Amino acid sequence: TRVRVRSAARTGAGRAMEYALEALVACEEWFGPLPGGKLEICQTRFCREKLEFAGCVWLDQALFEGENKEEMRWQIYRAVAEQYFGIAVYADPVADVWLSESVSEFVCYLMWEKYLGKQARVERMDQYLTNALKVTIPGNLTVTSSADVFNQSQYNTVVRDRGAAAMYELCRNLGRETF
Fold this sequence. Notes:
four-stranded mixed β-sheet; globular
């Protein structure tokens, strides 16, 4: 797989390449070659959330210029996972977004464990997933609700975090190989 990072921030570009390669190695080991065989990660100042298409991901320039390595790593892990679940395995981006987002988010936790260790994965899950499970779902929203009815905070809590928690429980109960 060919990977290219386009960024004016040298340090950030190097980190982006490192994290993209980590994610690709894990995903190619687990799911096979990256669909399309290439990935470009581009720095932009025009979007705050990542924007992705097949083989190309735009990330906020603040990730490249800042010191928050953990957030950059997570965003790149998610971007690579979504090249598999969301682009290669396509779900309707409004009605069935949970199919790609929940699985992609869970795959990020698996990558986190692979490269940072089990304790780091547990700590991150405690920080994000445990809190999401304690929140009452607003307005009867469910993980299968249409994406256009969520604000960003609700979306992250209900679709990404709760969905990843459900995937974790499935994996834990079925066993990683079966899952």
